[in-house]
Every structure is written in structure tokens, then in C-alpha cells.
Specification:
29% helix; porphyrin biosynthesis; five-stranded mixed sheet; five-stranded parallel sheet; globular; Methyltransferase, Cobalt-precorrin-4 Transmethylase, Domain 2; 285 residues; alpha/beta
Length: 285
């Protein structure tokens, strides 16, 4: 079915003036945390023009429908504990496609530059003489918390947020992090890829003096119809997540902003739940 003149007019207004995707370029594009409505207009513009798409595991495949049907589409996802594409091979494939004169879209979940290896890929493109553009996306550490009804910041609770990854390049718990410093100085901690080492991480934080009764939550499949949210405390979140069979992809948040969820679960309310009017931290008193 062809678009109506009104639809064509809106489309022209939306995309008029946005960048042209030139042959031989690679665009590193963030697809957001999961809800396709959070995709940016720049990302849609890229999808509409691309000749080749190399996409990650956390990208909603439905988003590929914005692209032309005759393009090259290749999966290059990485999932912990499963066979995955090697980063070196992904980098080389991006370069190869660009050198063929194709407009190459590297499509990633979340944001390319937040634990998405976008920086690694961009540096390889620079070394190979391939021009690139970065299209930011809403990262799960922000969007996922919002969909769970947990604000990343609240002026009466925290003035800082720390983002960290739960494993290093070897797959082990990061040893380069100053866990004592994080425990003492980070008011709210948002952790990516932390499920595997959650017991060890929470122990390190408590050993460094973090309050065991502090709020904690795990958000799985954030912003998608499969989203699950588990709230607990720092002392019990690892056991509770294990006993509840919570699995990646997941975001873990540590901080008393979690305790605001009962009054801010807008998504639960939209789906028939109740909002509890409460002041769990005595903010108003």
C-alpha cells in the first residue's frame, strides 16, 4: 500500500535536513534498550539508507523492517556463555563492507559508546581509513530504570550515578575497579552484565562498608514486553535474583532510589496495577 500525500509530507518533514548516508561510510547506531518507540529519528534515517546492516543480539529484529528489503543483513551478536562473533572479525567485516563502497550500519542495542564496544570499532575504522558517524541511543542503564519506575537520580537522594560493568574482557569480575572507592563514593550504582558475578560484587560492596539494607533491583529485558523487575536489598539481591531465575540481559541498580519504585511504577499502573502513594525515605517529613 502506497503512502498518502499527507504521510509523504510528514515523512519529508521528519527526514529533511538529516545527514545523507554516503557510500563507504560506517554508522555506529544505538537502537535503544528494547522498546522500538525509543529508537531515534537519526537511527531510522540510517536504516532507511543503509546497504548493509551488521546487528547485535540485543537489537529488536522488527527494527530492521525500516530498511530496504534487498540489503545485506548480518548477525554479529555477543551473548555471555554462548558462541559469539569475535570482535576482531566484526571489525574486519565492517571495514570490508565499507571498502566495497557500501553504506554500512553497525546496529547495537542501547548506546554504542556505553559498554557497547563502539569505541573499539571506531578506532579500527580510523586505522583503516574508513569514515564513520556515531548515532547515540538510549542506554539500558537510563531507559531500563525509567521503565522500571526507578529514577536514576532524585535530588533528595543522590547527586551522582556510577555506571560499571560486571565483568572485564576475560569474563571475570573486574579487578581494575576500586571497589572500596565505589562503595564509599557512589550514591547510586548501575551495573551492566553483572548477573554472573552479583554475589561477589555485592559482597565486595558490603565488605567496604555499604549498607546491607540499601535498596537494590534487577531489571531483565528492560522496556520490552518481557520486562521483569525484582526489588530487594543489597544483602539479598543476589540470592533473590538466583531464586527467581532472573537471567540476562539485565541491569542491576544499587541505591535508595530503588525504594521509590512503589510510588513511581508508571508502567505497572498502565497495565492495571496500583501506584502506592508513599514516602519510604521520609523525604517530605
Amino acid at each position: 500500500m502506497s503512502n498518502s500525500p499527507v504521510q509523504d509530507s510528514y515523512s519529508q518533514i521528519l527526514f529533511d535536513g538529516l545527514p545523507e548516508f554516503e557510500p563507504g561510510w560506517v554508522w555506529l547506531v544505538g537502537g535503544g534498550p528494547g522498546d522500538r518507540g525509543l529508537l531515534t529519528l537519526h537511527a531510522v534515517n540510517a536504516l532507511r539508507q543503509a546497504d548493509a546492516i551488521v546487528y547485535d543480539a540485543l537489537v529488536d529484529k522488527a527494527l530492521l523492517s525500516f530498511a530496504r528489503p534487498d540489503i545485506i543483513v548480518e548477525y554479529a551478536g555477543k551473548r555471555g556463555g554462548r558462541p559469539s562473533s569475535k570482535q576482531k572479525d566484526i571489525n574486519l567485516r565492517l571495514i570490508e563492507l565499507a571498502k566495497e563502497g557500501k553504506r554500512v550500519l553497525r546496529f547495537k542495542g542501547g548506546d554504542p559508546f556505553i559498554f557497547g564496544r563502539g569505541g573499539e570499532e571506531a578506532l579500527q575504522l580510523v586505522e583503516a581509513g574508513v569514515p564513520f558517524r556515531v548515532v547515540p541511543g538510549i542506554t539500558a542503564g537510563i531507559g531500563g530504570l525509567c521503565y522500571a519506575g526507578i529514577p536514576a537520580t532524585h535530588r533528595d537522594i543522590n547527586q551522582s550515578v556510577t555506571f560499571l560493568t560486571g565483568h572485564d574482557h576475560t569474563g571475570e569480575m573486574p579487578t581494575a575497579l576500586d571497589w572500596d572507592g565505589i562503595a564509599k563514593g557512589s550514591q547510586v550504582i548501575v551495573m551492566y552484565m553483572a548477573m554472573k558475578h552479583l554475589h561477589g560484587i555485592t559482597k565486595k560492596l558490603m565488605d567496604a562498608g555499604r549498607d546491607p539494607e540499601e535498596g537494590a533491583a534487577v531489571i531483565c529485558n528492560a522496556s520490552t514486553p518481557r520486562q521483569e523487575v525484582l526489588t530487594s536489598t543489597l544483602a539479598h539481591i543476589a540470592d533473590d535474583a538466583h531464586n527467581s531465575n532472573m537471567e540476562p540481559p539485565a541491569i542491576v541498580v544499587i541505591g535508595n532510589v530503588v525504594k521509590l519504585r512503589d510510588g513511581l511504577d508508571w508502567l505497572g499502573f498502565a497495565n492495571g496495577g496500583k501506584i502506592l502513594v508513599s514516602d519510604p525515605l521520609g523525604i517530605k517529613s
